[in-house]
Every structure is written in C-alpha cells, then in structure tokens.
Specification:
heterodimer, A: 390 residues, alpha/beta, six-stranded parallel β-sheet, 14 helices, 41% helix, B: 214 residues, Rossmann fold, 2 domains, five-stranded parallel β-sheet, 57% helix
Chain lengths: 390, 214
C-alpha cells in the first residue's frame, strides 16, 4: 500500500497510484456551518502523518489539530506539510484594528494591507475580506516595502534550522506530500497593490512591474536557496498562488505575461528543477485557458482549481496538452452542492475518463463553500469513494 | 477635419496611447470649438466601444480595459466642466450595488466607470446593500436599471431576496435587473427572475445600451 506521499507523487508524475487520491479545501465557515448541521462536535482527529501545517512548523510527531476535515472525510489537502520558511515581510506590520462599526471590522494586516470583513457571522464572515488599502501604491512605497523583503534575514528560517536534523526528520517521518508555497509574480504584485492598481501599472509604469518582478525572483530564490538545496528531493510540489484570471479570461494578456513574467519564471523554475523539484502547480481561479501555453513555457507543470463556471475543462486541457500539465479539481462546485443526480452526473462524467488519462486528482473546482450542505457533501464523499474504490 | 480630431481620440484610447496624448487631443478639440457632446460621443465613447470589442475578442484583457478606462476618465476630467448633459442625454439611470453580506466591489467599480463613460447616470450604493435600501434608492432616483453584484457563492441568494423585495414593493416592472459577479450565471438570473446576467463588465454595458437603444 502506498503512503499518501507516494500516491500523490504518482499522480502528479502521471504514474499509477494504488488508489486515486481526491483533494478538497474548505472555507472555515463551512466547517462551522456543518457543526450546526450535525458534524460531530467532539470529533478531534489525530493527523498521523502530517509534519506540520500552514508552513509554520515542522514537527516530527503526530499532532492534535482540532477538527481536521481532511482526515475526517479522507481527502488529500494542500496543507499536509509546508516547509517552514518565512517569505513574508520582515518585520511584519503590527496587526491592529483600524476601524470598527456594528457591522464591519477593519484590520491592518501583517502584510500591510487594510482589510474589511463583516463583523458578524452572517455570510462570508472571515474567509473573504475586502481589501481597502494596499501597502504599495507607487515606486516610492514599493522601495519602502522592499526593505522588508530581505532574503538574508535570519528570522526567515526556524530557530532550530539544521540541515542534518531536518534531513533525518524527512527520511524518518515523511509519509505525506511536502509542499513549498509562495506567490507567483502576478499574485505577488496584486497582493501588494490590489488587482486594479497592479493591472493599470503594466501601462502606467511598466518599469515598476519589472522592478518588482526582478526583486521577487531574487528574493524567492535566495530566501529558499538553503531549504531547496538541502531538502529538494523531499519537496514533492511547489504551490504558486497567482489568481490571475477572471471569468472572461486572464487579467493580463499572454503578451504581458511573456514580457514581464516569463523570463523570471524560467529562472525560478529552473532553480527549482535543478534541485530536483520538478512539479510546480499554479493556483489560479478564473479562465486561464489563453495563458496555458505561456505557463507551460514558464515551467509550470500543473494547475488547480479549473473552475467550470469560468469555462475551464480538464478534458479539453488534457486533449490539447497531454501530460504537460497535471490537473486538480474541475468538479463543478455548484453541481456537487446540489447532491443527488446532478452531483453524480458531474462526478461520473469526468472522473472515469480523467482517471484513464492519468495526472488528475479529482476535487471540487474551488474551496467547499458554506452553501454546500453537510448532507450533500457526505453524499458526494460516499459517491467519490465508491467510484475510486476506497 | 473635426471628425478626424475626435476620431483620433477614439483611436488613441483604443490603441492605449498615453494619457498626455489623449489630453492633448481633447484640448485641441475644445480649442477648435468642437461641441463637447461630439467629443464625448465620437471620441471617448467610441474609443471605449472599440476597447470593449477587443476585450470581447480576447485581444484585450482586464489590464487594457482598466487602462483605457483611465484614459477615458482623463478625457472626461477635462470635458466635465463643459458638459451639461441633461437627464435625457444620459440615456438612463442605474442604481448599482453589491448585495447584503458581500463586501467585494472590484467588478462593480469597473462596471461603474464604464457605465458613466457610456453616458449612464450611476448611483453607486457601495457594498453590503440591503434589499430595502435598493428599493428606496430606485424610488428616490426613478432609476431604469438595477445592477446587482455578488462575488461569493454564499451571497448570490441575496439577489433573489432583492428581486422579491422589488416585487412586494410593486416596482419590479419599473426596473430592469442586471446581475454581475463571479458567482452569477445566466441560469441563475432566469431562475430568480432577473432580466439578465452579464458574465463580464463589457457584456453588462452592452446590455444596458441595448435596453436604451444606444
């Protein structure tokens, strides 16, 4: 029987796993809703293979993590084990409340943005804040921010960072996949400037975009160098957050992507591949079809979540690109949430065919949202497990 | 000659020239005494229409759309003191907002910019707007169109509540309801009794134009 890591690696390398994993992510409020719908409140799960979560630690013993939907439902997550390297701004901005009403809470985040969220547990109460201000507005504010992105700052590595002991830990305890997660070049800029301002800047001040991309390339490579050169062979996948598309299509044209990001990506991905990390996944919502040629050229080898309502089709991508991209997701969250025949039709129309082609991990085409009722989700879980022979 | 000059504005916007180029052309038009309405119609709006078409054809993307809108905005900034558009000229009033429970406004704000440049009078109610507030604003402004936005799957059900509220208030037939936002689909619009769901901002503007025969 394969370990979760072997299973995950097999799929993303287009090899045959003993059983196909399936992967989900959950909004926190979904889980809270589900407790109200009968999820056992006393359920506390021992994660028997994870070595830490969210990139904040690398423990070497099983952890009690409260309720863990991934173990509970039996699905793979993106959070199994992240390398504990801090690639955020150092020093952090001091998080504080900058405004509060009966309805809203406005926070200065650790990355320097001002985020507004609803103060009440009414709808999307903490998963999806609205950003009101961003730390980078122009060249001057960028150069100020850049001072916090210094790769040689010793605080970026854990206090107990010791190559030999980390290697031993991986050799002895690694059972789940290990991921290295950081923002891609678009995601990096959009997070610092906000989507409208960042997109405008490609025309208003293209040199600033070049400067930011150049620094992000230098910063990621140099910050991660020690970890990647030490642990490369244990890192199964790089997870790049981009979110660079809307429903209609990419936020930037393939031409802009090639001009501003392609050379940088080639260097970063070349560095990763040189260190035995050859699976690089891009996380982008929206319709990225027109960028697929470019991202493949950039060295990216997988995509998630492939939103159906944004015209993404795993089958079409597979037909066009073969094994150049492993694919995760693409089960229409709206159909899955309906349950019953609609859910089964969605699952049955995709998984068997994509399983045949290999390189596909089934899952919802975005995080499981709070409108997805627990009863319908359990039905989906049962159906998918039956289909995958769990 | 004058037509050529206003046409140059349209070309400058659609070819994404610098704001300095656009501003100079607008000032040239004004100094030559070209009526402001013609500069707006033949220059700015036509330029943005061309950009919209390129966007629909996947020749332009969000960055180009935003930049072209900023060029149009720069042009209108110069023209505004000269514009005396009557309500009739605007072609319609739009009450716009993100529904209650949703605080996201990027798409809504882009739509607002384009709608204003297209000549609509837009009453932007912001985010997290209650159905009652929409009804009040429609009554107050006698709006022709209600634009509802929602990003989240969890908040689009609120659009149904707004339409229900319009019905109970007896004004559903007086306004066209246009839906927009990532979670919205055309099927959903039909299901809840909206008039249309626009899958992107350009489609939304085109729809408003069609409703007013523009």
């Amino acid at each position: 029987m394969m370990t979760p890591r072997e299973r995950f690696r097999a799929v993303i390398h287009f090899k045959k796993p003993d059983v196909l994993p399936w992967l989900e992510s959950f909004y926190e409020e979904t889980i809270v809703e589900w407790f109200g719908e009968g999820l056992p409140a006393k359920q506390v799960t021992v994660i028997d293979w994870a070595m830490g979560r969210h990139g904040t630690m690398l423990g070497n013993w099983p952890s009690l993590m409260g309720f863990d939907p991934y173990s509970y439902f039996g699905c793979q997550s993106f959070y199994g084990c992240m390398l504990p390297i801090d690639i955020g701004p150092i020093p952090r901005f001091k998080q504080r409340i900058v405004g509060e009403t009966d309805r809203y809470l406005e926070l200065l985040t650790e990355t320097g943005a001002v985020a507004r969220r609803l103060n009440k547990s009414e709808y999307g109460w903490y998963s999806m804040p609205m950003f009101l201000e961003f730390p980078v507005k122009d060249r001057e504010s960028w150069r100020e921010y850049k001072k916090r992105l210094e790769p040689r700052d010793q605080r970026r590595y854990p206090k107990d960072w010791d190559r030999d002991s980390y290697i031993r830990t991986f050799e002895e305890y690694q059972r789940g996949p290990t991921l290295l997660r950081f923002n891609g070049f678009y995601g990096f800029g959009a997070e610092l400037m906000g989507i409208p301002a960042f997109n405008l800047m490609f025309y208003k001040d293209p040199e600033l975009i070049h400067e930011m991309a150049e620094h992000w390339k230098y910063f990621t490579i140099e910050t991660l160098r020690d970890a990647v050169e030490t642990l490369g062979k244990w890192i199964d996948m790089v997870y790049l957050w981009e979110d660079m598309a809307e429903k209609h299509g990419p936020c930037i044209s393939p031409r802009l992507y090639k001009e501003f990001f392609l050379p940088q990506y080639k260097e970063v991905n070349g560095f990763l591949k040189k260190n035995k990390i050859d699976r690089i996944m891009m996380d982008s919502d929206g319709n990225i079809n027109l960028l697929l040629d470019s991202i493949i050229e950039a060295g990216i080898t997988g995509v998630w979540p492939l939103e159906v309502n944004c015209s993404m089709s795993a089958m079409e991508i597979r037909k066009k690109y073969g094994d150049k991209l492993f694919l995760i997701g693409n089960l229409d969250k709206r159909e899955l949430a309906k349950g019953g025949a609609e859910m089964r039709r969605e699952v049955d129309s995709k998984i068997p065919m994509l399983k045949q082609t290999g390189g596909y991990i089934p899952g919802s085409d975005h995080l499981i949202h709070a409108e997805f009722k627990l009863k319908a989700f359990r039905e989906y879980v049962n159906h998918i497990k039956e289909l995958l022979n769990y | 000659m004058n037509i050529d000059l206003t046409n140059q504005i349209a070309v400058a916007i659609s070819e994404l020239k610098s704001s300095e180029v656009v501003k100079k052309l607008v000032n040239d038009c004004i100094s030559k005494g070209i009526p402001v309405e013609k500069i707006v119609e033949n220059g700015v709006r036509r330029g943005l229409e061309a950009v919209g078409k390129k966007y629909e054809m996947n020749e332009y993307f969000l960055s180009e759309l935003l930049y072209a809108t900023s060029l149009a905005d720069a042009a209108l900034g110069i023209l505004k003191p000269h514009i005396k558009l009557s309500q009739k000229d605007t072609g319609g009033k739009i009450v716009l907002g993100t529904v209650r429970g949703d605080i996201h406004d990027i798409g809504k704000n882009i739509f607002k910019m384009l709608a204003e440049v297209a000549g609509f009078e837009v009453y932007d109610m912001g985010v997290d707007v209650s159905s009652e507030a929409f009804v009040q604003k429609i009554r107050e402004t006698d709006a022709d169109i209600l634009g509802l936005s929602a990003l989240l799957t969890t908040t689009i059900p609120e659009m149904r509540n707004v339409i229900e509220r319009l019905r109970t208030a007896g004004i559903r037939d007086k306004v066209k309801v246009l839906l927009g936002g990532n979670a919205v689909t055309k099927e959903f619009a039909t299901e809840i009794g909206a008039d249309y769901a626009a899958l992107d901002v350009v489609e939304g503007i085109d729809t408003c134009r069609k409703w007013f025969g523009k």
